[in-house]
Amino acid sequence: MKSFPQSALKALQKPALDCASLLVPTSLRSDWRREWRAELWHVRQACNLTGEVSWQVERSITYFCLGAFPDALCLRWHSWKGFTPPEPLRGSPVKCILSLVATLACFYVISILTPSVRTARRLAWNHAYAGVVLIRNAEVTSHAATISSRQFQGWAAGKSKYFDGFAFYRIAQRPVQLWSSQRKNCKIAYATSNLFSLLGVPLRFASQTASSDENLRDAVLSDRVWRKDFDADPNIVGKVLHIHGRGFRIAGVAPRGSWRLPERIDVWLLEPDSAVRAGSSGYVLAHLSSAGAVEMWAPRVFIKAYGPHDSELDLLGVSLDQKAPPPLSVFLLGVLLAFFALPATASVSMSEYGLISHKLTWPTRLRRWGFLGAKAALVLIIAYFASFDLACAYATLFSPLSVYLHLSSCFLICLAGLSWACRDQRQRCPVCLRRVTHPAQVGLASQTFLGWSGTELICAGGHTLLHIPALPTSWFSVQRWLVLDGSWDFLFAR
Amino acid sequence: MACDAKLSHTAAMILQAIDAGFVYGFSIMEMTGLPSGTVYPAMRRLERDELISSRWERQSIADAEQRPPRKYYKLTAAGNKTLESSRRRYPLLERLIPSGEEKPV
């Protein structure tokens, strides 16, 4: 009785040959299909002499059928006048580079398609929270709202040497129920309209078109509310939300993990500076000017401000971009650590190349170093994307855990990748950059001190022979390349 | 194609296999150990260079044996001469595929 995989293989064999025949030029197609089908019958007979149906038999026949595809491609290439078929990719530098590019493309696509990664990347590119300071009363140790709206309006209207922009938000005293929401208690914040632009947080689905109704003000939803109460509707922007009897036009959705300020908020209602309610207390955010950035040398600074009637206020400015280093800095640190650790995991010695009996030409040497550089560069770019994807997938954005995860994964990927690049380079022919093949054990280990013992590998293109000693000795400590001269050509006829 | 033209080892093996009596694709693959993706294009090139020729088996013969007809290959005169020069070039060829081996057809 046949298992499902066997039946599936058998069912696919003839269609595979038919598919392969489609690649053959039309004039030759019927002849080839006929020959392949006839051969398939005979292959089946030959492989199945005992009459027993087995997995091995079906696999052999399937391999035969798959061989039709290279046949068909070869015929197609020959049908194109002036076209030279590409050399076989096995072990070639092109295949190596293509594999790395494919890996890089995979991680890039993952980062494009994963919302959390995409958000993190956008926030990093926008330098979110860079130069933003949360200002609060220095005498209050908690995160309570301590700045009055009047103070904010005074600062926003005046000129400051150290700050070039102010934003304000306050939490509504009572939670509300949204018109279509199942959630009973949505936390609302009233904020100045420049809040998100000052923070550098790009809103999702944000449109530049203003509302046609001037009475409508803008509202921004949190990612949680948008997903749970609005079913992640991508056409949410422009819809009207009614809160406390007033209509608010939804202007966008704050990306997940982008809010790093006191209080968890579900909906931000944006209003102009002049409309901030008098007498309320809230949080003030200020953006540092270039002079302010120089003065803000510590994560926290004390600020002396003057209130109404020249009263002095002791304030504390807390920098918001000091908690999480930028992803690029984390990546560069990981790369640096990997380069330091590399000699401990892989030999980076290039001394064996000095022992080549024939001097390599400069273009050949440059090509070789360029290939190593290209591999290393691709490995580093892969590490950049992969580590960032990993950090965003398993930890909250900008949290210490995500930074540690980013750094450690970046370090490990860089280290493994660079070690591989070095090992791979040592196994590639210096002339054609193909991997050397056909390893052969030569000599006996017991004769190490009397004669040569080790492994020999040869370049399939017939350029070089690689000797790797089984036991490094003082006279033969590292691998050596032997450039093959014309007397070896008869072995590599084409 | 010139008879003394240098053939690749793969092409020489295929010529030697055909000369030894392995006259259709699968038997050549079995004898030489080359995969199908190599043997068939190589045979087409040899055919194009007029070193081998092919013919389809008569349908009546295949019908009598209840199997599909298959395509047989044989060396041309030029192919025989090229094989001779290839044997000088690759002395192990005849030891790899002896000409006196029992012919499957």
Mean pLDDT of chain B: 79
Largest interface: A-B, 23 and 22 residues
CATH architecture of chain B: Orthogonal Bundle
What general form of chain A does the structure show? elongated
Biggest sheet record of chain A: 11 strands, mixed
| Low-pLDDT regions of chain A | none
Query: CATH first level of chain B: which class?
Result: Mainly Alpha
Separation, N- and C-terminal Cα atoms of chain A: 47 Å
Low-confidence stretches of chain B: 101-105
- Helical stretch count of chain A? 13
Q: Total number of β-strand segments of chain A?
A: 15
Q: How large is the radius of gyration of chain B?
A: 14 Å
Q: What is the H/E order of chain B? A: HHHEHEHH
Largest sheet of chain B: 2 strands, antiparallel
Which topology of chain B does CATH recognise?
A: Arc Repressor Mutant, subunit A
Order of helices and strands of chain A: HHHHHHEEHEEHEHEEEEHEEHHHEEEE
Total count of domains of chain B: 1
Task: Set down the secondary structure blueprint.
The complex is a heterodimer of chains A (494) and B (105).
Chain A: H1 4-23, H2 26-47, H3 55-66, H4 68-79, H5 93-113, H6 115-125, E1 132-137, E2 147-148, H7 149-157, E3 163-171, E4 188-192, H8 195-199, E5 217-222, H9 223-229, E6 240-243, E7 246-254, E8 267-271, E9 281-288, H10 290-295, E10 300-306, E11 312-319, H11 327-345, H12 362-394, H13 400-426, E12 437-442, E13 454-458, E14 464-469, E15 480-483
Parallel strand pairs in A: 4-8, 5-7
Antiparallel strand pairs in A: 1-9, 1-11, 2-9, 3-4, 3-9, 5-8, 6-7, 10-11, 12-13, 13-14, 14-15
Chain B: H1 9-19, H2 25-32, H3 36-48, E1 52-56, H4 59-64, E2 71-75, H5 77-89, H6 93-96
Antiparallel strand pairs in B: 1-2
